[in-house]
Write a structure and sequence with these properties.
By secondary structure, the chain is α+β, with helices and mostly antiparallel strands. 44% of the residues lie in helices and 15% in strands. It folds into two domains: 9-94, Orthogonal Bundle (Arc Repressor Mutant, subunit A), CATH 1.10.10.10; 104-157, 2-Layer Sandwich (Dna Ligase, domain 1). The protein is globular and about 50 Å long. The two termini are 26 Å apart.
């Protein structure tokens, strides 16, 4: 799980950008400056960003200010596994496990809006059993839990 614990943030940003560059080169995909910048923005903090927040930050960085610029970059990042959409927030976050097939589960702090990504076992647990029993084949799950992150829990206890 990544998001709530302390870690070398500059290292995780650098590593994720390098992984995206290598993946795109291997697959013949264009990792354009806008796509790179949007991924950098998502990686800068473990919080979900809305498309208009990203658009404002792109504009501040000298990129285009039209919504399709941000949405096209986000679509690319999500479709290739570099980012996820947090449905509850209608916002996006960098993937903590890019390139690895997984079913993410998101823990969203209702006070500070930080988001941590963990692995979901919905396809193999009780939900997966119920789906199989119904003859349903799960292709994608989105698990989102709202609560308090460790920092906000400590502050609430004071």
């Amino acid at each position: 799980m990544l998001g709530f614990e302390k870690h070398d943030h500059s290292h995780c940003v650098q590593t994720a950008i390098q992984s995206a560059e290598i993946f795109c080169a291997d697959k013949g995909l264009r990792f354009t400056p806008v796509r790179r910048k949007v991924l950098e923005l998502l990686l800068q903090e473990h919080r979900a960003l809305g498309a208009y927040d990203i658009l404002d930050r792109l504009r501040d960085a000298g990129f285009g200010a039209q919504p399709p610029v941000a949405y096209r970059a986000l679509d690319f990042l999500v479709s290739h596994g570099f980012a996820h959409k947090i449905e509850r927030l209608n916002a996006f976050i960098a993937c903590a496990h890019p390139g690895a097939p997984h079913s993410p589960a998101f823990m969203i702090c209702r006070i500070c809006d930080s988001v941590a990504e963990a692995q979901s076992m919905s396809a193999t647990g009780a939900f997966g059993d119920a789906a199989r029993h119904a003859g349903f084949q799960i292709e994608r799950t989105v698990v989102e839990a709202e609560g308090l992150c460790p920092t906000c829990v400590k502050q609430a206890d004071k």
